[in-house]
Amino acid sequence: MLPPLKALQAFEATARLKSFSKAAEQLFVTQSAISHQVKQLEDFIGQPLLLRQNKSVELTQSGDMLYSVVRDCFVRLNSVTQHLLNQPPVQLKILAQTSIAVEWLAPRLELFKQRYPDLDTLLDMASMAHHADAEQYDIILGTWPAPAGFVSQQLRTEFWYPVCAPAQFQLLTGAEAAELLDYPLYSSETGEDWQLWCQHQQVRSPAALQLRYVNLALLATKAVSCGSGFALSNDFIAGPSVAAGQLIALRQFSYQLPWGQYQLHYKADSVQATAVKQFIQWLYTQVTSR
Q1: What is the pLDDT of residue 290?
Q2: Residue 287: its H or E element
Q3: Closest-CA residue to 153 (of 277, 273, 290)
């Protein structure tokens, strides 16, 4: 059974300063309060700890034994406390695929900081999973498979749809999906994304599509903003530009790209498990609000 903490604190200060009055001044209490706490500790121990001699105080043998231990504990506790107080805020290291990092996640991180001011984030991005060491991160967001040691869950069901600039949209004469194939098509999947789109829309693909190749869906989306052609995009990539009127989304021609579903990967046994959980909860509020 441990002695009362306040009594130990009063005893330590009195023994160190060899004075009830000085201990009272240091702890901002009355001298009688200090005397009462020391007496409580002596009753708990069952033997005297201090010898009261006029205005001075001396330790008994038992008191000296207890003081050496209590003093060491208080010094160590103070050292650890100061270390923790000087620690920087918890920092979550996040790796996000380029397509979700640039237009969607990065602009929202200040909202997370406002919600959790004691948590810092370090956002990194990569276009390919093998471009980064997963072990260096607490959270990973992307269409990549789960790294070893990570738990995964889908962010949401993601729909991909054609996007184009307003000027290109004005050139469309009808509401048929096949008409898009008359214009340049920007592809980040060597044309396979548009081939799957044609199958889903039940549109016969012409022998030679006007394909323009890039290596990222983000680049395809940016490319069509100049006013010519179409790209397949989603709300993470094109959402802000669509909302700003810079791009037109043809959602009536949307489909689910098999490899275009975003996953959340996180370390279940992370030393920052509480912070990871808070970020995930916040992230899902953002995802559901689009």
Answers
A1: 63
A2: helix 273-288
A3: 277
Q: What 8-state DSSP symbol labels residue 290?
A: -
pLDDT of residue 183: 95
> How many CB atoms lie under 10 A from the CB of residue 231?
30
pLDDT digits (tens, 9 = 90+) for 86-101: 777 788 999 999 999 9
Model pTM?
Answer: 0.68
Q: Give Cβ neighbours of residue 203 (< 8 Å, ≥ 6 apart).
A: 177, 178, 181
Alpha helices for 116-226 (secondary structure H): 166-169, 192-201, 217-223
pLDDT band at 111 (very low <50, low <70, confident <90, very high): very high
Helices (H), 87-205: 98-100, 109-115, 166-169, 192-201
Classified as helix, coil or strand, 7 is helix
CB of 281 closer than 8 Å to CB of 119: no
| Helix-then-strand count for the chain, H and E | 11, 12
